[in-house]
Amino acid sequence: MAALEWIRAVRASGLGLAGALLAACASMPAPVSVLGEAPAAPTDAPSSPYDESAPPHVLAGRAPLQCAPFAREQSGIQIYGDANTWWGKAAGRYPRSNSPAPGAVLVMRGYRDARRGHVAVVRQVVSSRIILVDHANWLNRGEISTNVPVADVSANNDWSEVRVWYIPSRQWGARTYRANGFIHPFLLTAALS
Known about the structure:
Blueprint: H1 2-23, E1 31-34, E2 57-58, H2 67-75, H3 86-90, E3 96-97, E4 105-111, E5 113-127, E6 130-136, E7 144-152, E8 161-166, E9 171-172, E10 175-183, H4 188-192
Antiparallel strand pairs: 1-10, 2-7, 3-10, 4-5, 4-10, 5-6, 6-7, 7-8, 8-9, 8-10
């Protein structure tokens, strides 16, 4: 009987650990504002922020994954640790900017507190204020989402505030998130050579 209770305790702590690991990515950064209605797309956004033949979708059949390992795998940027540490760890190693480019990693910060963050890989620049990203764990189930529109809604067009397309409802998400900017996937030492 004691062995059965021990097995149950080990199983419960394993499930708790798995849940904590999936939450470490903090897939939804701190909202700047929450609107009562679905926000309008930026003024220069096309009628549809993505190619209708390749809409945003969640990949099926992949094992759950956090945003940081996914972004590292897809971009080649060799930064380790939680998403909230990527911007600081990139300093002096990788170029950082407020200009999106394919293959760059968008770094969003905060979610309820400063220990949370999210990273997503830029797939395509659609316009000066719309990009498509691929990322993991945005919906908090470890899923991988591709072709997801992200809109720059900052007053200065500097990508410091963004909105993310919400796949389940097929519209712009109601929250505005803070962003640090973009980490570009080539080492500074290589760029200076």
